[in-house]
Structures are given as C-alpha cells and as structure tokens.
Specification:
Layout (H helix, E strand, L loop, with lengths): L5 H24 L5 H12 L10 H5 L6 H10 L4 H8 E3 L5 E3 L7 E2 L4 E2 L7 H5 L8 H11 L4 H15 L1
Antiparallel strand pairs: 1-2, 3-4
Helix pairs in contact: 1-7, 1-8, 2-8, 4-5
Length: 166
C-alpha cells in the first residue's frame, strides 16, 4: 500500500473533479452494460494503491451515520446507556440522522490514525468507502461525495472512467 500524498491528491482532485462528477452523473442515470461487474474487479486494484492509515480523511473530515444498533453496541462498550452516549457524542443532522458532534471523530487516534473502537465501529465506517456495492447506479451519488475526501474513491472513479470511456 502506498501512503497518501495529500498535495498530489488535492491537485488531481482540482483537475478532475468536474469530469469525474459528470461521469458519475451519466453512469448513475444510464449505467453502461457490465459496470456492476467491473466495480469489484477495480476495487481489488485500488486497495494496494492506497494506505488508509496514512490518510484517515474519512474520520477527519466526515462523520458516519449511527444506526440504532451502532448506538446500542458502542454505548454498551462504554458502559453507558444509548441515551447518555448520544447526548455526549452525537447530534442530529439536517436529515435527522445521528452523526458525530465533532470532527475529527472522537474515536480517531490522531498520532497513528487508528480507530479506538475499530472492532465495534459504526456499520457506516465498516463499509466505507462503499466502492463495490452491488448496483453502481445506487451508489454513484455516494461516490460523488466521497471523491472529495477519499483517495480510494478517487482512484476507483478514475479507473472506472478509463475502462468505461476508453
């Protein structure tokens, strides 16, 4: 895995954001034949190229959505009631979802970019960045958001665009 170079990532993002979002919009509305089968293949190519622990942008700049099950599991780990945990750490966003009050995430260790609750982390974190979900058209909108923060998503979209458009 390669360490993430944020200067290079930001430069590439500035150069390609518009065309990548346009690609995602087109393929979301009209998915090319076979794109759903390409996603898991391309995902396997992406991971050797990105070291998440050298980045942790997802934990620094984004927040997971906490499900009721996440709330129960994580609060039990801290010997808190779900309500006490929610009051201490979470807020409702504009969609009425439970999200972190602060960024970076309160469970991120900033010295090594490791999650202090990794084994019981929210389901949203465990699935991030959702690269090869079954239907491309159902996750293209997620990729549009994530390319701004996640080098793995950026690489996935970059590779998919080359494969689909030639």
């Amino acid at each position: 895995m390669l360490a993430v170079n944020f200067r290079t990532f930001k430069r590439k993002l500035t150069l390609h954001r518009k065309t990548f979002r346009s690609f995602l919009n087109r393929t979301e509305k009209n998915p090319p034949k076979g794109i759903d089968k390409l996603s898991p293949i391309v995902e396997k190519e992406v991971w050797p190229e990105v070291d998440c622990l050298s980045c942790a942008n997802c934990c620094k700049k984004m927040t997971p959505t906490f499900t009721v099950q996440d709330l129960k599991r994580i609060s039990a780990h801290f010997n808190q009631t779900p309500e006490a945990f929610r009051k201490q750490w979470l807020k409702k966003d504009s969609n009425k979802d439970l999200v972190n009050k602060t960024q970076p995430c309160q469970f991120l260790n900033l010295t090594d970019n490791k999650c202090s609750i990794y084994a019981i982390r929210p389901v949203d974190c465990a699935g991030f960045p959702h690269l090869s979900k079954k239907k491309w058209s159902e996750y293209a909108h997620v990729h549009k958001q994530n390319i701004d923060y996640c080098p793995a998503t950026f690489k996935m979209v970059e590779k998919m665009k080359k494969l689909v458009e030639g």
